[in-house]
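Section 3.1: Structural characterization of target chains.
Under the original work plan, the team committed to producing a structural model for every single-chain target entering the pipeline before any wet-lab resources were allocated. The record below documents one such target. The sequence was received from the expression subgroup and is listed exactly as submitted; it comprises 106 residues.
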Amino acid sequence: MAGKDKTTDAKAEKDPKKWIARFQVRLAMQPGVDRAVVLQAVKEVTAHCAETGAHPQTEFGDPDAYAVEAAARLVPEDRAAHAKRRNGVVNTFESVVKKIRDVPGL
């Protein structure tokens, strides 16, 4: 497996739009996060950066790590726990269905 291209990472860090895009994707992947949470978090980041003139990388750090922080702050704990349980059940069900499909003669 190829390693990360450091020049590509450096370019992404310099472009605020790429930072925001990565943040949005990573945030949307967090348990319990819906469209409203993503919009609120992106609005907070863009407003802060517009006000200060700073790059999101400088102000908030790694977009992946900040997505986890933002989800923990913006998603109610019970909703996140419910989403995690649901995701676990769905993954288990999909695994069982796959195994059944692999059985010859069924």
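Helices lie at 6-14, 16-28, 35-52, 56-60, 63-74, 77-101.
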